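Final report, closing paragraph on structural work. Over the funding period we assembled a curated collection of sequence-structure pairs, and we close with a single example.
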Amino acid sequence: MSNYQSNEIKLINTSLIDPHPDNPRKNIGDVTDLAASIKTNGLLSPLSVVPNGSRYRVIAGHRRLAACKQAGTGAVPCFVLDLDPLQQLEAMVTENCQREQLTVLEEADAIQGMLDLGATTANVAYRLGRSADYVRDRAKAASIGNEVRAVRDDFSQLTIGQLVAIARYDGRPDLQKRLAQAAGTSNFDYTLSRIERDDRDRQWIESVAALLVESDNGINLIPDPPYSNPEWRYAGCMFPSTGTPEETIEKIREQNPAAVSIHMEQVSLWTRRDKTADAEKEARRAAEQAERDARWHALEEYAAASADKRMAWLHANLHGVKRAQLIETTARLGLLQIIDPDPQGYTEPLATWNNAACGGEQFATISGIEPKRALAELRHHLDEPDWAVWAVQILAARIEWFIDPEDWTSTNNVGRRIHGYYLILESLGYQPAGDEIEHLKALADLIAEADQRDEENNQ
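Its predicted structure, as stored:
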């Protein structure tokens, strides 16, 4: 303010001095302590004012003026300056900036006010002792409308970087509000990057669309047809990652589709449907599905037959097995259900025990006891010397309950247990049939291949 300072001091009653309406600092804060000091010691630094008709407006000293009025001070010393509106605003901005009393947004609005009054960017930068970029950034921040500023109470506390990013989307208040809400959080950079990416994608699709509508490009542009359209078959698409709009047009020409369409942020490629080829393709698909259905039906029949065979053998033979062997079998069956075996019957990592209640129907088949009597029979027999045979029946029934047809072609936990289950049955005297041996070998080969792939992937 030194360039505008006056050497003449005039006593003016505070009742005749008003705050300047263009003061960049919107909140002067609490002046209670300052008022107490002025009441005790008087006003030590004169105010700077400009005439306003029969009254005055303060240029420098808004807090001191408020404190004087609160302290009940009458006349105060003032420098009376002769400044035009631009000079007045410039003086207030300079004084507040030197005192570091303005928020970034207050300073931005003040700088924009100076530019509106005819000051140049270079002149404002010179008067404030700042760079031209400093002034331009704050002018951008000042362009943010009140609708966006009202999104949050602390909007004026945002950093200049956040304000410039928000101002970049002038005319798109929805995006500005998203950024304003995210400012000051860890989500701001992510939100900004998403908006920037979406903006680039929008610009890309607009540029591609402009090139596609040119009459001499040789590309057939059509409205986006539904995927079930009888005339067109979807043949792929191109995204912004394809390349520049010009590169995208060249790649479309290389692929030479029958037509292209634009849908949201992608370019869809289309070929004409060949109804004969479609019919042949559908016939092949139906034949392949029929073959899969037949294989599945055969597997279901095998799984059911092998389960019936195993359980019939258990029903007929378990009571003739020696007690010591049954106790050993009980332990082996129990372990088989809580550990993960390999096809050779050796155990791998412990798995979580499955507490689901299951196997009632299978237990009834193996034991020959009606389902409604099974629980009472078990409570009786498990306390008797022949408890082991009943324990084997329970555990075998549980494993039978778990084995589904697809487990014979799967490397899941149940599929891996099948081979170990058969080893236990064979130790009791069970003899697998030829089809069982064939399926067991196929399952073991499948598991071995899967394990080898896993081992190679982990190397």
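DSSP finds 18 helices and ten strands in the chain. Residues 275-317 form the longest helix (43 residues). We thank the funder for supporting this effort.
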